[in-house]
Design a protein that fits this description.
By secondary structure, the chain is of the alpha/beta class. Helix content is 57%, strand content 11%. It has helices at 2-6, 8-19, 23-38, 43-69, 91-97, 101-104, 119-132, 142-154, 158-166, 183-196, 213-216, 220-232, 247-259; strands spanning 108-113, 137-141, 170-176, 201-206, 234-239. A 5-stranded parallel sheet has the order 2-3-4-1-5. The protein is extended and about 75 Å long. Bound molecules: adenosine-5'-triphosphate and magnesium ion (MG). The site of adenosine-5'-triphosphate has 18 residues, from α7. Residues 119-120, 174-175, 205 line the site of magnesium ion (MG).
Length: 265
């Protein structure tokens, strides 16, 4: 190897690769030359091996940046979800979502359930799976989304902003129903849902039953029109179970009951 390194063509090749910013090919050049010699690879085979290093790194960077721009609250994935803790969830159904077929079919998913049951976790996991497969994905809380649309309206750029949110192949709107939405803002939300309807997929999370959406949006007609479009091609995952956030507390309580012979301390 030393004699190759001393060789002026070797030096020239390194310079060319550096000039072309093919860092991985520089890093793996020696190893690939050794591999080529030991395994009697042809020139094209060796070149494929060397360029594959560069391609792998580019793909990894691309995936990382897709995940980064997704605006996710954390990077928890399906593998981090304890399905045994929440037996009302059909694991296979959630795993099916990560195949992203629902995006091809332009279908929606609604996670419905009380606090801490894993709605945001599961929505984020599916979003990350989509971003990793280079699907344009964006996560936003409902309140922030509405504030952004409202601001855009005031600045006379609502149409642009709506188009911006409408174009994502997958938009995750978290926490519908946590903060009240006045009727004017409900119209902005409706406009976005209408623009995405049957064009792109949306995942929504909510702690409010659909019959209460009229109160949330402070306009039953708009709420109805929103629900109609969201639910037309949608899977609703209704999670009924305890809060994972309180898991530790329940366990402590159970331990203390057992410790005290079944009598709560
Ligand atoms: N089954 C689970 N396995 C592992 N972690 C879980 C599970 N369920 C929830 N968690 C974790 O518990 C926390 C709360 O979950 P999450 O944020 O998804 O709840 P949520 O249903 O969105 O609640 P909220 O309605 O209050 O927003 C997160 O840190 C999440 O990762
Ligand atoms: Mg949540």
């Amino acid at each position: 190897m030393r004699c190759i390194k001393m060789n002026s063509t070797y030096t020239k090749l390194i310079q060319n690769l550096e000039y072309l910013k093919l860092k991985q090919m520089v890093v793996h050049l020696d190893g690939t030359i050794d591999f080529m010699t030991n395994n009697q690879l042809s020139f094209t085979e060796a070149l494929i091996k060397l360029t594959d290093y560069e391609i792998d790194m580019k793909e990894k960077n691309m995936v990382n940046s897709m995940v980064k721009v997704g605006g996710f609250p954390h990077f928890k994935e399906i593998k981090d979800f304890d399905f045994e803790f929440q037996p009302t969830i059909n694991k296979q159904q959630i795993l099916d979502f990560t195949t992203l077929r629902f995006i091809e079919l332009k279908e929606n998913i609604v996670f419905l359930g009380s606090s801490g049951v894993g709605k945001t976790h599961l929505a984020t996991s599916i979003g990350i799976a989509a971003a990793k497969k280079r699907t344009s994905t964006y996560f936003i809380k409902c309140h922030d989304l509405i504030m952004n649309l409202k601001k855009a309206k005031l600045e006379n750029r609502l149409e642009n902003r709506l188009k911006h949110y409408a174009k994502y192949k997958l938009l995750l709107i978290d926490e519908i129903g946590y903060l009240p939405i006045d009727a004017e803002d409900a119209k902005l939300f409706f406009q976005l849902i209408d623009m995405r309807y049957e064009r792109n997929s949306t995942i929504l999370t909510t702690n409010a039953n659909f019959k209460n959406w009229g109160d949330i949006f402070q306009d039953p007609k708009i709420a109805n029109a929103i629900l109609d479009r969201v639910l037309h091609h949608a899977t609703v995952i209704n999670i009924i179970g305890p809060s994972y956030r309180l898991k530790g507390h329940f366990e402590k309580e159970k331990d203390s009951m057992e410790h005290n012979g079944g009598i709560k301390a």
